[in-house]
Amino acid sequence: MGFLSYFSDNSSRNSEEINLNIKDRNLKVVFEEEVPNDAKEGFLKEIKSIFKRDDLVGFGRKFEIVFVSESKAKSSDKENSKAWVNLGDVNNGEFRIYINTKKILQKKSEGEMMSQILDKDKDDYRLGPTLVHEVEHLKQYYETETLERLGMIRSRLESKVSKDLVQSISQLKENIKKGKIRSGSAQEEFRSAVMLWLHDCLYEGTAKFSQDQEKGGEHSAITQQNLKYHYLLGEKAAENVQKSLINFFSNPSERQFEKLEKVMKQDKYMIGHHMIFTIIYSKGSLTTEDLHDNSHLEFIKRYEKHCEKLDIEPVITLNSGEGILDYNQIIQKWYRKFGK
Question: Are 246 and 329 within 8 A, CB to CB?
Fold first, then answer.
């Protein structure tokens, strides 16, 4: 069986759990009741084939397929359904598909069980079409519920942050223009502008992530290859911002500040997208926790934690000094350079 691992479920004598890793995706397959070995082998073969496809399952890294017992299908009022998914599971970041074991084993024409007559060439016995159909439902729920809700929250908060950021930058530019860069107000405006920019990275990054997921572009699938791809983009963007900060600190002119402003504005998308992609890759899905916790400080802390888990260097940090851009170091550099 290669990479198949079997574990017993003490809650049922016949229950079986199989953990698969397919193209860096973690997939748990649970058989709540006994299934004929030939049918099980056929099901697993189709499952592995389907979960290799980025175009179908690229939106997540953790999935579960549960072949439910007859009693559970009845208690869920699904005894006449071959399979189903629950919106509540998706909202909690759980991509789970329920398969009605009795129904999927049934031969439509005669009502005979696969354990009696098994013809692998007949669509009557194939799991594939049913599984693909339910995966599409999962993706639809994910896009219409999770991503749309994320977009609504982002838009509502982004408008205020963007307005405050523009105001802070405008006031800071005025102080620079008047030669008041060492004033207390300039220091506070710079600190505020950096903090609001981190907020903006979060909002614009999630927006870009959502758009890429909905379009299903070349680098949208939650895979290790795309993790590296977005990391390199985020790393390059952070290096651009860091270089512009150094140039401004060396020559705090209005022109240099405008260059810094331009770089921070254009590179926030790549930095934020990398950060949200990293968190979701590490966790396996987007959850309600990600939707409702909109503090940029908590967002960065969570990002750092998942970078550590994945053993990659963070691009942005709060105060550890490990990131290309470290919030505390940026503020301290300003105070050392322009403080009274």
Answer: no
pTM of the full structure: 0.72
Q: Which amino acid belongs to residue 263?
A: V
Reported as a single tens digit per residue, the pLDDT across 65-123 is 999 998 888 888 888 899 999 988 887 888 999 999 999 988 544 444 444 444 444 44
- Judge whether 127 and 104 are in contact, CB under 8 Å: yes
Measured CA to CA in angstroms, residue 311 lies from 186, 306, 307 at distances of 38, 8, 6
Please report where in the chains the tokens 């060439």 appear, as a residue: 121
Tally of CA atoms within 13 A in the half-sphere of 291 that contains its CB: 19
- Domain spans, the chain: 5-126, 151-338
Name every residue whose Cβ is closer than 8 Å to that of residue 172 and which is 6 or more positions away in sequence.
Answer: 186, 189, 190, 193, 257
Please give, one letter per residue, the 3-state secondary structure of the chain: CCCCEEEECCCCCCCEEEEEEECCEEEEEEECCCCCHHHHHHHHHHHHHHCCCHHHHCCCCEEEEEEECHHHHHHCCCCCCCEECCHHHHHCCCEEEEEEHHHHHECCCCCCECCCCCCCCCHHHCCHHHHHHHHHHHHHHHHHHHHHHHHHHHHHHHHHHHHHHHHHHHHHHHHHHCCCCCCHHHHHHHHHHHHHHHHHHHHHHHHHHHHHHHHCCCCCCCCHHHHHHHHHHHHHHHHHHHHHHHHHHHCCCHHHHHHHHHHHHHHHHHHHHHHHHHHHHHHCCCCHHHHHCCCHHHHHHHHHHHHHHHCCCCCEECCCCCCCEEHHHHHHHHHHHHCC
